[in-house]
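Hi V.,

Quick status before I head out on leave. The structure for the redesign project is tokenized and pasted below; the design run finished overnight.
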């Protein structure tokens, strides 16, 4: 029997792909990674000569790489050289998106960038909302990754399915191994920052707390930002979004000052 996570109804209600005709800003690098024969996924790298580490970023399910063109400057101010990744069917990418493909493609993308000199020696993998899933997948599989940031990410896949209007009584061990972030995050050993909005009504802050409690990282931080929800994290008072990340990076031994 087909897994609900591989069903058309689930994935069509999970992903909201759209074209992305906006050209990248001057100096950016467009990267196309072949994730399957004749299917390329688009990533955009924003070089920063002064960067101390690479930030490999997986965005939310209604976003595209150009949505971050005006934000990478703030990441650069934290010491990051940012690479933003799309999913199949998004922007300039081919194919059709599914959660399984997003997880498997993330590993192909990471290996390609690593093996072709597109990543610095220190790499932080960050995932926002749906992007938390490929971020946790990578950090659970590649021990050389320096750090991980999860923003507004889900924990338990059952509520994820129910938010798509489907019903599921339980998940199989095979489904949990791939789709259950709160179980998979036990294998994440690198320094970890989890950020969530206190007023997030799409993914409860309780899911952030579950991921935090389950995480295998010895160095881990949970920040629940007050007054913001799922899609306005950067609007947190007193610059809490970027200041939280700044403190996280400054505390890490693996990224030199």
């Amino acid at each position: 029997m087909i897994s609900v996570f591989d069903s058309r109804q689930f994935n069509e209600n999970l992903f909201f792909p759209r074209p992305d005709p906006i050209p990248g800003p001057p100096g950016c690098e467009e990267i196309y990674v072949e994730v399957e024969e004749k299917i390329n996924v688009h990533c955009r790298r924003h070089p920063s000569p002064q960067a101390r580490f690479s930030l490999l970023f997986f965005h939310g399910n209604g976003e595209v790489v150009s949505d971050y063109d005006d934000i990478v400057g703030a990441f650069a101010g934290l010491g990051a050289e940012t690479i933003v990744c799309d999913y199949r069917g998004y922007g300039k990418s081919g194919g059709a998106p599914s959660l399984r493909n997003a997880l498997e493609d993330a590993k192909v993308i990471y290996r390609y960038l690593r093996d072709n000199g597109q990543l610095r020696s220190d790499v932080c993998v960050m995932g926002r909302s749906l992007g938390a899933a490929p971020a946790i997948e990578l950090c659970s599989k590649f021990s050389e990754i320096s750090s991980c940031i999860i923003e507004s990410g889900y924990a338990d896949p059952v509520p994820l399915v129910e938010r798509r209007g489907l019903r599921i009584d339980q998940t199989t061990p095979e489904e949990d191994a791939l789709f259950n972030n709160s179980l998979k995050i036990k294998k994440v050993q690198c320094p970890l920052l989890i950020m969530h909005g206190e007023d997030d009504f799409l993914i409860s802050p309780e899911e952030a707390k579950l991921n935090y409690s389950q995480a295998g990282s010895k160095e881990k931080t949970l920040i629940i930002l007050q007054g913001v929800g799922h899609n306005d994290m950067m609007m947190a008072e007193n610059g809490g979004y970027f200041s939280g990340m700044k403190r996280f990076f400054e505390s890490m031994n693996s990224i030199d000052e």
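Above is the designed sequence. The CA atoms of residues 196 and 208 lie 7 Å apart.

G. will cover questions while I'm gone.

Best,
W.
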